From TrEMBL:
<dbReference type="GO" id="GO:0034388">
    <property type="term" value="C:Pwp2p-containing subcomplex of 90S preribosome"/>
</dbReference>
<dbReference type="GO" id="GO:0000028">
    <property type="term" value="P:ribosomal small subunit assembly"/>
</dbReference>
<keyword id="KW-0853">WD repeat</keyword>
<feature type="repeat" description="WD">
    <location>
        <begin position="1"/>
        <end position="26"/>
    </location>
</feature>
<protein>
    <submittedName>
        <fullName>Periodic tryptophan protein 2</fullName>
    </submittedName>
</protein>
<dbReference type="InterPro" id="IPR015943">
    <property type="entry name" value="WD40/YVTN_repeat-like_dom_sf"/>
</dbReference>
<dbReference type="GO" id="GO:0032040">
    <property type="term" value="C:small-subunit processome"/>
</dbReference>
<dbReference type="GO" id="GO:0000462">
    <property type="term" value="P:maturation of SSU-rRNA from tricistronic rRNA transcript (SSU-rRNA, 5.8S rRNA, LSU-rRNA)"/>
</dbReference>
<dbReference type="InterPro" id="IPR027145">
    <property type="entry name" value="PWP2"/>
</dbReference>
<dbReference type="InterPro" id="IPR001680">
    <property type="entry name" value="WD40_rpt"/>
</dbReference>
<feature type="domain" description="Small-subunit processome Utp12">
    <location>
        <begin position="227"/>
        <end position="293"/>
    </location>
</feature>
<keyword id="KW-0677">Repeat</keyword>
<dbReference type="Pfam" id="PF04003">
    <property type="entry name" value="Utp12"/>
</dbReference>
<dbReference type="InterPro" id="IPR036322">
    <property type="entry name" value="WD40_repeat_dom_sf"/>
</dbReference>
<comment type="similarity">
    <text>Belongs to the WD repeat PWP2 family.</text>
</comment>
<dbReference type="InterPro" id="IPR007148">
    <property type="entry name" value="SSU_processome_Utp12"/>
</dbReference>
Amino acid sequence: VLVVAFRPDGKELAVAALNGQITFWDHENAVQTGSIEGRHDLQMGRKELDKITAKQAAKGKSFTTLCYSADGQSILAGGLSKFVCIYNVKEQILVKKFEISCNFSLDAMEVCDHRNRRKMTEFGSMALIDEGAGDDDGVAIPLPGVKRGDMSYRHFKPEIRVTCLRFSPTGRSWAATTTEGLLIYSLDSGLIFDPFDLDIDVTPSNIHKTLHQKEYTMAIIMAFKLNEKKLIQEVIEAVPSNEVDVVCSSLPDLYVEKLLEFLASAFEISCHLEFYLTWAHKLLMLHGQKLKTR
């Protein structure tokens, strides 16, 4: 068994095993209620150093992370592959398959079973041929456990992996941590999570707490780090107009530009015209010279 996941209501258990299957269990009665054969959906290509075909190699592939949707009707599965699959639990069928990367600098990205012709020689794949130092003692092949050999040998090609999957509590989006970074898929096109210089302490609740303590400059910086427009607007509009001067003078240069960009977009839609004009006026009076020289 590689990974287990409980359904949000706690009535069902999903288990992903080394044979590529996902099985579902009624844990109270210790009865298996269903299974999904997921091996065919992982679909890995042939690696450079593989001596067997992709079809044979697929027999060793499996899911390493599972996550139920909020309603418990679907399950998200990913692992040693560039695909993330969503299955319907009741019908036990594949609903949708997401390809998380098309980066060919990673290993085993080509789904076709044949090796790349450019890397083939009459002696086999170039990746499997040790170039050696060409000295009198012959070729020093870097084998595991061998004391001699080329210590500077660093031939390494990363593989695509999905290490963790999580559904949002609303069930409208999910996130995956992969070789390519953190990916977020959402049904809401308005949700664009693009943080800047993000820290572990920068959360909406912490921003509201800082705002409540009247640390306005800190709250604005944190809001820009999280980079969510509604939150930035909420924080800026919570600053009393008599504090604007102080806040503007204590803002770091980096955030001055970000704030000006935000103000420019806010003028078009906001009804607080005078308040935003005060902000723009104070910012430009205090930082205008620096901005000009840049």
